[in-house]
Amino acid sequence: MVPLPTGGSVLPKLVGGLVVLGVLTVVIKHPNDAAVWVRALAEAAGDAIDGVASFFRQIAG
Hints:
The chain is an all-alpha fold and 61 residues long.
């Protein structure tokens, strides 16, 4: 289980716990959809990194 922060307000802990519970529910009930979403996020992150690298290459000359 993911350890929750021990200090602070109850609301951030509650929201964090609900987010974790929601993600686990989606992964358990719809594993194929969850895998597609993760793959799409990874591709988007890769495209963003490529865009930043291209930007710096163009600045460098």
